[in-house]
Amino acid sequence: MYVRIQVGQASCSALLDSGASRNFMSQAFMQRAGLGAQVRRKANPTTIKLADGKTQQLLDRYIDVVPVYFTPHACELVMFDILDTDFDIILGIPWLASADHTVNFHRWTLSFRDTFDAEVASDSSPTDLSSDPQVVRLLDEFADILESPTGVVPDRPISHEIIFEAGAVPPKGCIYRMSKEELDVLLSQLNNLLAKGWIRPSRSPLGAPVLFVRKKNKDLRLCIDYRKLNAQTVKNAGPLPRIDDLLERLGGAKYFSKLDLKSGYQQISIRPNDRYKSAFKTRYGHFEWVVMPLGLTNAPTTFQAAMTNEFRAIMDRFVLVYLDDILVYSRTLQDHLGHLRRVLETLRRAKYKANHDKCEFVQQELEYLGHFVTPKGISPLSDKIQAIQEWSEPRNVTDVRSFLGLAGYYHRFIKGYSKIAAHLTKFQCEDRPFDFGQEARESFLAFKAALLSAEVLRIYDPLLPRRVTTDASDYGIGAVLEQHDGVDWHPVEYFSKKVPIVHSIDDARKKELLAFVHVLKRWRHFLLGRSQFRWVTDNNPLVFYKTQDTVNSTIARWMAFIDQLDFFPDHIPGKSNRFADALSRRPDHCTAVYSTFEIDDDLRNSFIRDYQADPEFRDKNVNCSSPNPAPSHYRIQEGYLLVHTRGKDLLCVPSDPHLRTRLLGKFHDAPATGHFGVNRTIGRLRERFLWPGLLGDVTRYCESCEVCRRCKSRNHRPYGELRPLPVPLRRREAIAMDITGPFPKHKTGVDGILTVVDRLTKFAMFLPCRYHAKAPELAKVLYAGWIRTKGYPKEIVCNRETRFMSDLWLALIKRWGSSLKPSSARQPQTDGQTERAHQTAQVLLRTLIRPDQKDWVERLPDVELAYNSSIHPAIGMSPFKFEHGSPVTSPMDTITPRMAESDDHLLFLRRMQELLVKARDQMAKTQQRMSQQANRQRLPCPFRADDLVWVSAGEFSLEQDISRKLLPKWMGPWPIVAPAGDAPEGPSFTIQAPAHLPVYPVFHCSKLALYTPAEHDDFPGRRSQDPPSMDGFQEVGDIISQRRYGNRPTEYLVHFAYCTHRADRWLTRAELQATAPNVLTRYERKMQGKPVSSAPRHARVQVPPSDRQLRPRPGLTS
Q1: Which residues form a coiled coil (predicted)?
Q2: Per-residue pLDDT reduced to its tens digit, 834-869
Q3: pTM of the model
Q4: What is the 3-state secondary structure (H, E, C) of 669-701?
């Protein structure tokens, strides 16, 4: 049953529902009635189940004590919950049981007592007569009108024309790239349009690009970028009806029907001579439109002309036409059915199709052109002034400044402005406590009344110039429509709206354009088809949006709507855009900005409980919770303590370690926060919280985060100062060797070079060999090339290649009486001498060999001679001279002969000794200079035995299908066993790495990072940060203890190999018997006191995620 009621500024038919547990009001009706300012949020939202028994909705808003008029003298105060429903108002059990309401189902009336205690009956007549049998029969008769349009558009008197401006350059565009999904949809839509006859293949010299945008239901919509075409098209000045003239025709009408055409633009054809101008390019061909598409300028005026031509005979008699809004109005129901039949016959004759979903038939109340039409009269929708009416009371200094910015812009129209503003301007000082008392409240309400008065707010006049000013903030959009009366600009309508969540993170340009799109949809009937209007924005790039070459899909979707209107954009500095800026920053729109993370009941209770014990916020919480709190920047909202500072509200965080640990986890460890460093984590938290000691807490938390330490690089200078090898005492006493290659295979079968360098004289030999030769073959090459002519060296420096560390090689070294000094593992800088010789030899080979690179072996003697005869900077002479006592003889010596050297062997020995002393001194100076220069970029080694260290992941071989770029940067932590050398400070150390890792356990300190365990009391309840097993298996190391509860099977506490005791798990006997029987047997024998064999080989067992991975653990243990 329905009952007619009046609430606020609107009336409706309320549904009486005895099965409803509450009274409900829809969001749409709340706005229509102008009750937005009275809406309150619930401290404890509730969830209800709707009549279908499945759908659930959250009730978080309500309106208290709303006057509901059933007759002019019968009013009751009712509380409503705001519900997303198609019914305007639902009166449930709370209202039915609140008083003596008599329902007569026989007469279909509702009776109650008025203010004079007289029993009166309410009006329960329906306002929607679309289900009346006469109406149903009429609509069934014209069912073909309500079908979707198909086939070629018939010839009609009016068609769309595209006329270029003088000197216009035919616009052309490139084809945009598309994904496979878009190409599939494009081909499907092209085939559909071709089948309908709406497009055809084209040979036009023009061509606009196409692109796709996502609809709300995730489907793809085809859009055509006609910006360049519209910019050069002559604008049609065809008239649109005046809205006030149309509404005057509705006097005395009681029945209304509104019709909307299905794909209205596509039911209008393009003039044949102009169709080539609508051409568009795709990957599947070049096409042009036969019908009028969306996005063309002048389309609204063409559509209005077509509708006027069809309905001219009956227009203003019982039909009003404004673009695609066709309104049928009549005084009686029978007249209305006849008038509606006449309109449907006209549409059938002209072969137009209507959209049944958007049509409203035989109504007594409906919305038309921004007004609410009823038999009792016509009233503008409250949306016109809703932005001001719903402006909530300022809660802080920023809110006051924002409101005064709006009021100050129109101060010249407000009588006594400075007197009214006096009680508000005093709040603009941040140092003063915010106490919004009665005087300030009266000034605020006086300003709202003044902004809605006739002196400020004017009625729209279609003959006056128009200006639309917009602005967007992080959480809202605002706009004002103004007209110039010849003296000044006056507002016509205000608009304010919360930014949808999906757009809250958009860039400023996109949000500013979104504000413009919203106001164009809202004021479309004011702006379409008339003279050019002015759009004012403080975003300068938007002034040039029509000339930008590329746009994203969202803006492309908006362009199809924006380009229907004729306007010119204008830029205004942000400081001058105070009125629209204020509307975009209404305080009731910004609540969502501070709720970007989810707070569950447990976390909320922690906040409320800890405020009472926290020394920083205890007194402030008590003050704000009292009935008459002292003026303060703090306030209580839904149990949370908020403080207004830096222009926004911040949530106060008490000093409870568990609470702060959870918040740090949400803003550092969560997937959406990305484990960023100290600065970015602090930035996230400072936007939302007032947190004493924030810097220290975040610094300690991030520095102790094992995920960060495992996965992030260290940006300090590398550890390990340069320590050159000792200078040898005699020639040929110490050599260094290494293999380089592979090179193109020579005819002799060699493809590598064994480089041998005397560490004292720097004399080098480049011996050809096979790059992958085995140890015996390399030993023969070394013996034949070096030892045969230079003798056995005392020391040999080489890397840790398997051939040099093989048993055969070590036996040969021992047989030769030499000692092997392998370099640090994976640290080629240890043997930099041969590495540098490799580089020099390769440079010389590049300059000498043929392009086919087949003669590199023949060029090795030349390379060796050139290398040894050049002056080496480390010894200050050539290696040849140091080795032989005299420089290499050159062909140029025949021109400038040198003095013959004495044959006296004593002089030769003295000269060789002098060369030795000189070279050693030079090498010592060179090493000292090199060490000083290198150590400026290095740090001393801080590691000692028993330290826990991370090891660079680059030192380990990769598993199959694993990318090194996505691996953690560090492995471990593992303890240092001992330094790998005589010096306790390294620089290489032996690490106790897990036995299953195939790696030599000696690492240079530059590949290590110190691990410092976190204090267990710093962040109690912190989630485990141990990485999960890559394959779901762990190796069982030992059994620690056992337990049994009642009849449940015995469980064993298992310690996993290579894991800390934090990873210990309880497993059943069956699980251990199936995976690690030897470990279980060994444990049972040990518990029985029987002799135990050696530790069994580790067995691998598959385990589910541990408790520490599923929920917070109470604390870290060592």
Answers
A1: 909-936
A2: 888 888 999 999 999 888 888 999 999 999 999 999
A3: 0.44
A4: HCCCCCCCCHHHHHHHHHCCEECCCHHHHHHHH
